[in-house]
């Protein structure tokens, strides 16, 4: 099933993608994770530069980032690790009858991401030089990772993250479901995922689950002690400034950037302003 899906969506990722095999864990079976290095030297063992780990949005994948990770890594003079989470891109798809639990983002931060770093032989010393860069759901996962493993990174940049559920988020996600089922949105997303329904309904179903309305990671943020930058666009239809203001209230050292004329995807809506903000922040903390 997975191989046929990958072949059918061969255009959604370039030949540069590699795959990491994650062994089964107590709460899941084995996984195959699509990943790609950016700016990696030919001999990775001799590359001691910092690593930017990119965590994509709820409908994202390696391919959907396009060239932004490359552009940012060149600006930061870092190597980058981009990967597709299970259910996305060319990674192991979600089973048709599998429903993600309310705490699915915690599971990604606590289990999948550390297992991927292990599989890629990124040791403790290297992890202390990692900058987590997450967008939307990926931003939430970056926050959770920074809280769960406060010494296993150099810092984090979270872009349009979610720390609790707002009405605007649920309304926009419900509208996206209607578009997926009535317009060409499904065909467009199929260019980026081997199993597009796996990606879409995994994300959409959990966000629209009534139980998810009570989801919050606000109480989990206090252990974060590495540098933290939170960025939000004023025109974001998936969340308000209350998200990053709440982060600042619970992580006093966090810095905030609020972008004008910018929606939910600053790397597409305002890339120059976003890159400037990230570069200045990272430079100040290196």
Automatic annotation (TrEMBL):
The keyword Hydrolase applies. Residues 53-277 form the AB hydrolase-1 domain. The keyword DNA repair does not apply. GO terms for cellular component: membrane. InterPro entries: AB_hydrolase_1 (IPR000073), AB_hydrolase_fold (IPR029058), AB_hydrolase_sf (IPR050266). Pfam families: Abhydrolase_6. This is Alpha/beta hydrolase. It comes from Paraburkholderia sprentiae WSM5005.
């Amino acid at each position: 099933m997975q191989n046929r899906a990958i072949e059918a969506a061969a255009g959604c990722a370039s030949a540069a993608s590699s795959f990491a095999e994650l062994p089964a864990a107590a709460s899941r079976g084995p996984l195959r994770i699509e990943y790609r290095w950016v700016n990696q030297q030919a001999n990775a063992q001799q590359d001691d530069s910092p690593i930017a780990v990119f965590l994509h949005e709820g409908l994202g994948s390696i391919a959907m980032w396009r060239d932004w990770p490359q552009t940012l890594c060149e600006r930061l003079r870092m190597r980058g690790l981009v990967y597709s989470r299970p259910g996305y891109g060319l990674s192991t798809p979600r089973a048709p009858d599998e429903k993600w639990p309310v705490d699915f983002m915690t599971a990604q931060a606590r289990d999948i991401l550390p297992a991927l770093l292990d599989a890629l032989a990124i040791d403790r010393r290297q992890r202390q030089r990692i900058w987590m860069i997450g967008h939307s759901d990926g931003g939430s996962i970056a926050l959770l990772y920074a809280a769960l493993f406060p010494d296993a990174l150099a810092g984090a940049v979270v872009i349009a993250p979610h720390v609790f559920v707002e009405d605007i988020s649920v309304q926009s996600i419900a509208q996206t479901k209607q578009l997926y089922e009535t317009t060409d949105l499904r065909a467009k997303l199929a260019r980026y995922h081997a199993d597009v329904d796996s990606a879409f309904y995994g994300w959409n179903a959990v966000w629209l689950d009534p139980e998810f309305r009570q989801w919050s990671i606000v109480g989990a943020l206090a252990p974060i002690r590495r540098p933290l930058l939170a960025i939000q666009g004023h025109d974001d239809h998936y969340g308000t400034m209350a998200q990053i203001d709440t982060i600042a209230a619970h992580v006093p050292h966090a810095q905030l950037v609020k972008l004008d004329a910018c929606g939910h995807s600053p790397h597409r809506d305002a890339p120059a302003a976003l890159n400037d903000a990230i570069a200045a922040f990272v430079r100040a903390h290196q």
